[in-house]
Design brief:
Number of helices: 14
Number of domains: 2
Radius of gyration: 22 Å
Shape: globular
Low-confidence stretches: none
Largest sheet: 7 strands, mixed
Strand order of the largest sheet: 5-4-3-6-7-9-8
Helix content: 40-55%
């Protein structure tokens, strides 16, 4: 096994024993096998390619934790204090088509539970055209299209991600009802004539964007936002706190956006608030033009 993995034998043995101690492997005579927990939590959750990408993402973020006790009090970016460059996610995604393909595939797998939860939560009867803003692979749009045969969806994302999403959609028979609009939705012109716009896991909730999206909606059309948002009196999930801490290492003022702040921005952009719900995959805020 050490030879196959390219790991020095004694190190490989120590590594396998550690994995056994963590409950990820179990000894079977002179061999090792995966445990039921490993099968459920790892192998059944993402593909090998997606896990490899998540590991690369973790390695990219890890340097900020180098000697963290000495730099945690730095008033600016910990990355700057360490003399390290922090990769810009948007630029990397826009310039590296293969990375965008792998990242989009990973999110396609990761967001399957959220897609099913949203389909069971939102009533989209009567919606003919859906814009999936920053929708990546279009995984959520596809779930709605399966539920509502008369609906069409347009996924808006950067060109590399749109190409990756288009490739995923080509393997799934959607009858041509899902299309991909490449571009930067913050600066580029957007299509219009939509009954509903979905902004899920995008993380941009400012008045200017909401006003721009309002012009893309038909009269009475709805804007639905799903994201990690703090709610007063509701415990914040640990995963959100972890991400907020990592973000604060680059920007000491970074924080989890609040549901109250998103609703205030929507009111300023002249939307009528319709509903707020707490989901397994985030907080949902629904507003109407």
């Amino acid at each position: 096994m050490a030879k196959q993995l390219g790991i020095p034998p004694r190190r490989c043995r120590a590594w396998l024993e550690l994995l056994e101690g963590l409950g990820l492997l179990e000894r079977q005579d002179k061999a090792y096998a995966i445990t039921a927990a490993t099968q459920t939590a790892i192998l059944d959750t993402h593909s090998a390619e997606s896990w490899a990408l998540l590991a690369q993402e973790a390695r990219a973020a890890y340097p900020a934790g180098d000697d963290l006790t000495r730099h945690l009090g730095h008033p600016g970016s910990v990355w700057d204090a360490l003399g390290r460059d922090r990769r810009d996610h948007y630029t990397h995604m826009s310039e590296d088509a293969d990375w965008a393909r792998r990242f989009t595939q990973m999110l396609y797998e990761y967001h399957q539970p959220l897609a099913e939860e949203l389909v069971d939560t939102l009533d989209l009867a009567g919606v003919k055209r859906l814009m999936d803003l920053g929708g990546g692979s279009g995984v959520i749009s596809m779930a709605f299209l399966r539920r509502y045969p008369g609906m069409e969806a347009v996924v808006v994302d950067v060109a590399t991600v749109s190409a990756a999403g288009r490739a995923i959609a080509s393997k799934i028979d959607m009858g041509g009802r899902i299309t991909y609009h490449p571009g930067d939705f913050l600066v580029d012109e957007l299509p219009s004539g939509f009954d509903l716009i979905l902004e899920s896991d995008v993380g941009i909730h400012n008045v200017d964007l909401f006003r721009k999206l309002r012009g893309c909606l038909n009269p009475g059309g709805r804007l639905v936002i799903v994201d990690n948002l703090e709610q007063e009196g509701v415990p914040t999930p640990f995963a959100w706190l972890r991400q907020a801490f990592l973000s604060s290492l680059a920007d000491p003022d970074a924080r989890i956006p609040s549901a109250a702040g998103v609703k205030e921005a929507l009111r300023e952009a002249e939307y009528e608030l319709v509903a707020q719900r707490t989901l397994e995959g985030g907080v949902l805020i629904e507003a109407r033009r």
